[in-house]
Amino acid sequence: MTGTEEAVIGLNWGLNIMDRLNSSPRLMLVSDLDHTMVDHHDPENSSLFRFNALWEAHYRQDSLLVFSTGRSPTLYKQLRKEKPMITPDIAIMSVGTEITYGKSMVPDDGWVQFLNYKWDKNIVIEETSKFPELKHQAETEQRPHKVSFYVQKDKAQSVTQALSKVLEGRGLDVKIIYSGGIDLDVLPKGAGKGQALAYLLKKFETEGKPPLNTLACGDSGNDAELFSIPGVYGVMVSNAQEELLQWHSQNAKDNPKILHASERCASGIIQAIGHFKLGPNLSPRDVSDIGREGSSPGLEIVNTGLLLEKWRRAEIENTELFIAGLKATVLPSGVCIHPSGADYSLEEYINMFRKVYGDQQGKQFRTWVDDVLATQLGSDAWLMKFRKWELCGEERKGCYVTSILSKKDSDWFTLVHLHQTWMEHSGQDEWFL
């Protein structure tokens, strides 16, 4: 048995993501973050909100979301505070040198052991210090299996070639990746976004649950490896950098499984899902008339949140018909526990909506839900658990939500129970809905 096979079979899953799936993931979506999933030129995060709604409504229950980023855990967590991102099932960080699972970011110990082969960070630091062209990145970006620098574009190729020979002469097996026109990372030979993805796919195969389809999404040179994994679909977003486009023209221009999208960032990802026919690609945010008939529990949760957002932004008409329509979808005797701890009947809770109509009109107010998971309690009832967020400008509030939905003798879901609890550091807002 090879070292790789031992690592795969003897892995500590940590938080076993696959336990919640009854069968192979319908789709595993693996996306870079900066300028791919996250558009830093879009202050309203419109494409990210579109993707969030699509994923939580149609994919969260039976698919896997993987973020693959060059960022260290420190900068990854910082980005999550700055942008309205949903929680991935798996995070690949530090250019494929770290793999973690779930919200708690449980590390994959088997991957760490695999990367230790012919790697010595101290030797890398010693030899790179002899290259004045290399400028150290921040200390947070120096990781156990990654040493990172800035280097001018015109010096990158010569430095990479010379450094590779020196480190090979010291007995190391390394990989040097240049991306973004300035970033240079020295990694173990077995590291990288592509190798981390291949490792995960092997791991799922060992578990007997290989993804039915995998879509890799990127914009820069360090994403090229993702598109090289056999059988994987790939999308280069429309704003992809020259280095990735050049790689594509030299290595994969005739590959029908790789798309150069016509849309930016997360919108390009949504476009690719439709192009390759991997599943639904109409985001609930793109539906002008939000319907509820025949929807899934996840779509019901997403659509309800969007309705309340539109109500507070005064994007739907303020009528008693709207309030009556909401009341028709709740159990009159049902109980709502507000994050403040106050108890209301569900009808009382809906009556409160009158007071907040249009209170966010003209503001950058958005809501989204995260990690929407449904547990079927019976043939017609579901326990829903998720996180709900409100964002107005830079102010963010969130709560944990547990609810029970029922669907008896109707195509409509009925809300039976709603329990909300403030997240730590969230403001105490009477009108958090």
Automatic annotation (TrEMBL):
GO molecular function: magnesium ion binding; sucrose-phosphate phosphatase activity
InterPro entries: HAD-like_sf, HAD-SF_hydro_IIB, HAD_sf, NTF2-like_dom_sf, SPP-like_dom, SPP_C, Sucrose_Phosphatase, Sucrose_phosphatase_pln/cyn
Co-factor requirement: Mg(2+)
Cited CDD domains: HAD_SPP
Residues of the Sucrose phosphatase-like domain: 26-277
Keyword Thylakoid in annotation: no
EC class: hydrolase
Pathway assigned to this chain's UniProt record: Glycan biosynthesis; sucrose biosynthesis; sucrose from D-fructose 6-phosphate and UDP-alpha-D-glucose: step 2/2
Top-level taxon in the UniProt lineage: Eukaryota
GO BP terms in the entry: sucrose biosynthetic process
Keyword list, A-Z: Hydrolase, Magnesium
Reactions listed under catalytic activity: sucrose 6(F)-phosphate + H2O = sucrose + phosphate
Family, per entry: Belongs to the sucrose phosphatase family.
Full protein name: Sucrose-phosphatase
Organism: Sphenostylis stenocarpa
